Amino acid sequence: MKEKYLINARIIDPKNNLDEIGGLIIDAKGLIKAVGKKVNNGNLPSGSNKIDLKKQVLMPGIVDMRVFVGEPGFEYKENFRTLSDAALSGGVTSVVSMPNTSPVIDNVSMVDFLKRRGRDKSKINIFPSATLTKNTEGKQMTEFGLLKRKGIVAFTDGVKTVQNPQVMARIMNFASQSESLIIQHAEDNILSEGGLINEGEISTRLGLKGIPSLAEKIIVERDLSFLDEYFCRYHISQISSEKTVQVIKKAKNEGKTFTTGVSINNLSLNENDIGNFRTFLKLSPPLRTENDRQSLVEAVNDGTIDVIVSDHKPEDEESKRLTFSQATTGATGIETLLPLSLELFHNNSVKLKKLIATITSNPAKILGINKGTLDKGSDADLCVFDLNKPWVVNKEKLKSKSKNTPIENRKMQGQILKTFVKGELAFERI
User: Fold this and answer.
1) Hey, which residues are catalytic here?
2) Homologous superfamily in CATH for domain 60-367
3) Tens of pLDDT, residues 389-408
């Protein structure tokens, strides 16, 4: 591969506090050789391979911490190839794959399979997670040490919560000794049992059993109490309510060290969007009130929430176009993660550099991976986007195998133009 020269770009790299007009050099090995205002047309070799980005934004490739692949077992929903295509069109170069496959990722042989398939069928970086408990049953811990040595970056039961406090205490104790990252989906099973949407006026009007925000808050409070005894790398997968934001803010102010994520769905939609039983908006955690949504946005802005995720969960249309109680839970989102996030910038809710940090450097730091940055010598995983380009979401144009987007026909401002992985142009919008 020849050296590439990206010039005349607005370069944003939150890790290095960089926001300036300049360029970036990719060396023959696909690594970043130089970046910043010192890289410009005037000091580059004549006749070199220059790509003029015309003041479009150049940033690190997006790191998405919560993605459901579908492979193995659910290839009809999504496979590594279609996930890769969808991710690249959304500027995503690295994903953490959830272990809720069939069979689940809870042993070494499944990790080997996953890594081989990811390497052979996709162009993006696949960082697999494994289950916290055997078969996600919440009873017996998986072999953290062995799985971590095989390249597992985090442990989570994905769509399930470890309900048994004794098991969770044991997990956090072992995680503290092995320095393993624990990711918890916070929802109390008893309080949420049979629930379909947020508990409140909308659920009453639609005649649907609600899920109280207390179900989330209780699990978060419990786990943060354990954190006093068992100091470990602990991450709350995604929160959805004002009550939980208050708990997290208080705990961080008291000096507790942990991190928190939020789904882009809960930042950009609320329970009113469900309308008359729109099953494509049946999500977990559920969409809650507008006050909850605004609290989450404020928490992103003030740093209480560290990471924004797509919660990309492809489902075939047959399983979504059912009655609300029968429809499966989940939505695609990896292709629209950045544009939806940019809404928070365009409406002056979150500064651009802060926003980009939540999808690049922050998740990379939590995971302990060398991604999400434009550091010299790091892989040239890059994303180029037009900050202001208007477009409309059309599910038929999405590259994901499943088309269960919750934002069909939504008007967007900001679009991915190019995505590079290890210095190679992997996606270009025509």
Assistant:
1) 311
2) Metal-dependent hydrolases (3.20.20.140)
3) 999 999 999 999 999 999 99
